[in-house]
Structure formats: structure tokens, C-alpha cells
Write a structure and sequence with these properties.
alpha+beta, 5-stranded mixed beta sheet, two-stranded antiparallel sheet, globular, binds iron/sulfur cluster
Length: 342
């Protein structure tokens, strides 16, 4: 199902990655980080144990260092500090995510992890296509909320950017696709999708001010932009034996701000009309995918200032259009995946 979204975003990137199976010899930091965080989050979902989640994440990071070293070769010395920063960042994000999750009061209980669903693609008359091509999806995590019937699907995203409003989740194709697969396999709709965004930042410890004169006790800064949280601030007050009554303004502000600068949870739902529309559109999308797979000339690019900077095929894509030797670049920078396509 991710392939359908990838195809719709850019058929050229889809063709290079999925049909030719090209894998960059050096992973982009974005995908590398997302992959390792996924491991930590899944262990957290399975065990509810933050320490175990962080340990699994660290283990996965450390295990990949030798591959990174090999991939980057002579450039590794320059790249290593950036990856090291990401390792530390992820550890802090996992720690805080567990606190954030508890603070939402949703009491989510994991009922399934990494469940893969297969659904035959149907034509507009409702018949499965010849050869039974299937739409597959892997649900990272299904949860139920205490005291409620029905499952929610959870999806996570790591992001550098904050946003002020929702992200048009009601139009998000991947969300609709998950709902569709779930409905086709189980016969009923999930309650909705919980979409957790983990911003790539961790809060600071509250700033400690130098005593005004010798012998005075240290105090905490009341600067509202110091990037800390209510939890860290109250903990520091306790540890320094300071009176919270002297800090009411900043405590009120931090309490109101909660975890909004670090995490965002949104819940979205789909109805049966949206599901039927997805099934109908899927048939035509599948026809297009098949046509592109059979004729690479149809794999035209779909440039976007949002997407292209993160695309692993960016330089190849440029070379394909400016007359450079794209195949030579592919040979030098990519390997071919041996993984079997589902
Ligand atoms: S760089 Fe942009 S247009 Fe080119 S393949 Fe990647 S996503 Fe598509």
C-alpha cells in the first residue's frame, strides 16, 4: 500500500525504487533515523518498557554503524558526528514519547503489532482481478482504548517541522488505504487512525541562574522560551528545594504548553463512502502502475520542493533530464535489492 502512495507522489521515484529495486549504498539520515526509531517504538508498544525500547533502539543504531562506515567510506569521519547526534536525539525522543503517551490519558492497549494484510484488487464491478494482484499493508500497531470497542490503527512520523494546524489528514491516502484494508479483511471499519508525530527535538533542562551574591541559593530562570517542560521544571524545583509559588507564571505557561512543541497526536476517521471511493480509484491506479512497470518511459518525474530534497534518487533524476550519464551514477551509488516483492 505504501507503494500506491509512493507511485502517486512520483512515478519516477517509485519505478527506480520499487521496480528496479535500487537501494542507495549510503542511506539518507532521514530514512536511517526513521528505521531505528521504528524499532524502538515497536518495542515500547509491545512491552510498555521505556528502558527496553531505548536499549533496542541503541542496539539497532550500533549494529548499523559498520555498514554506515562502509557505505560512506572516506566521508565517514565527516558524517559520524551527525549520526551520533541522531542517536542521542532518538534516545531522548523515545524517553519523552512514553511520558507524552501517558499524559494524553488515552490508555491505549496494544492488540496487534506488525500485522500484514492482503486484499485482492477489485475491478469496478467488484470482481477480483485476473492473476489476483493484491494490495498489502503492514499495520505497525493496532490498539484499543480502555472502555471502548473497536481498534485504532496507529501511525508514527518523525518530523523536523512543527505545524500550526492539522495536516489534511482527512485526505491522507495512506490513512484511507489502511482503513480500506482493515475493512476488507475484518468486515468492519476501525474506530480511526491515531497519527502521532514525533518532532525531532528534545526539551532542555530548566536554566539555572547564577546566585546574585555569594551565599545566595541558585534560582531557576523564568524565561518562557527556554525550551523546557512542566515535568522537567517541577522536578528541578523539587531537587533545588525551591518554592513553586515563586514560579506560578512559568509553571502555568508550561502546563498549558504541555508536549505540543515535541509531539502531536491527531485522530482521523473514514466512512464507507470514502472506502468505496478508495477501492474504485485503486483499480485505476493499479492500471497506471502496471503500465509504468511495463514501459519505463511513462515513469515521468513529479518535482516538488517539499519531496525532492529528501528523495534518494534526486541526483539520478536530475541526470536523467540534463543529459548526464544517469546509469553510470546508478552503478556507482546504488545496489539492487534482493528482497522479494510481495
Ligand atoms: S527528485 Fe523529485 S521528481 Fe525526481 S524522482 Fe525524486 S521525487 Fe521524483
Amino acid at each position: 500500500m505504501t507503494e500506491v502512495s509512493k507511485f502517486k507522489e512520483c512515478r519516477r521515484a517509485w519505478y527506480l525504487g520499487e521496480i528496479r529495486g535500487l537501494v542507495p549504498k549510503t542511506p539518507t539520515d532521514y530514512f536511517w533515523f526513521g528505521d531505528k526509531m521504528h524499532i524502538g517504538l515497536q518495542v515500547l508498544a509491545e512491552t510498555g518498557d521505556t528502558e527496553k525500547a531505548i536499549a533496542s533502539y541503541m542496539e539497532a543504531c550500533n549494529a548499523s554503524i559498520s555498514d554506515l562506515e562502509k557505505g560512506f567510506g572516506a566521508f565517514w569521519a565527516d558524517m559520524a558526528p551527525m549520526f551520533q547526534e541522531l542517536v542521542t536525539l532518538g534516545r531522548g525522543m523515545l524517553h519523552n514519547y512514553a511520558i507524552f503517551d501517558r499524559s494524553t490519558g488515552m490508555n491505549l492497549k496494544t492488540v496487534a503489532l506488525e500485522e500484514r494484510l492482503f486484499v485482492p484488487i477489485h475491478n469496478p464491478n467488484g470482481r477480483a482481478l485476473k492473476g489476483m494482484p493484491k494490495l498489502t499493508a503492514r499495520m505497525d500497531r493496532l490498539v484499543i482504548r480502555e472502555g471502548q470497542d473497536g481498534e485504532y490503527i496507529i501511525d508514527y512520523k518523525n518530523s523536523t517541522r512543527a505545524w500550526t494546524e492539522g495536516r489534511n489528514l482527512e485526505l491522507d491516502e495512506q490513512t484511507t488505504g489502511y482503513h480500506y484494508e482493515f475493512w476488507r479483511v475484518r468486515g468492519y471499519l476501525p474506530r480511526g487512525m491515531i497519527y502521532d508525530t514525533l518532532l525531532k527535538r528534545i526539551p532542555n533542562e530548566p536554566r539555572v541562574l547564577k546566585p546574585r551574591k555569594h551565599g545566595d541559593p541558585p534560582l531557576l530562570s523564568k524565561d518562557k522560551d527556554q525550551g523546557t517542560t512542566f515535568e522537567l521544571y517541577t522536578q528541578a524545583l523539587r531537587e533545588m528545594n525551591l518554592d513553586p509559588k515563586d514560579y506560578t507564571d512559568i509553571l502555568a505557561q508550561l502546563k498549558e504548553q504541555a508536549w505540543t512543541k515535541y509531539f502531536k497526536r491527531e485522530v482521523t476517521t473514514r466512512n464507507m463512502e470514502q472506502i468505496k471511493a478508495y477501492e474504485r480509484d485503486l483499480f485505476y491506479t493499479f492500471q497506471d502502475m502496471r503500465a509504468v512497470a511495463q514501459d519505463p518511459r511513462k515513469a515521468y518525474p513529479n518535482p516538488s520542493p517539499m519531496r525532492c530534497p529528501r528523495c534518494p534518487f534526486r541526483d539520478v533524476c536530475l541526470a536523467m533530464n540534463d543529459g548526464s550519464d544517469a546509469e553510470d551514477m546508478i552503478k556507482a551509488r546504488f545496489t539492487v535489492s534482493t528482497e522479494k516483492r510481495l
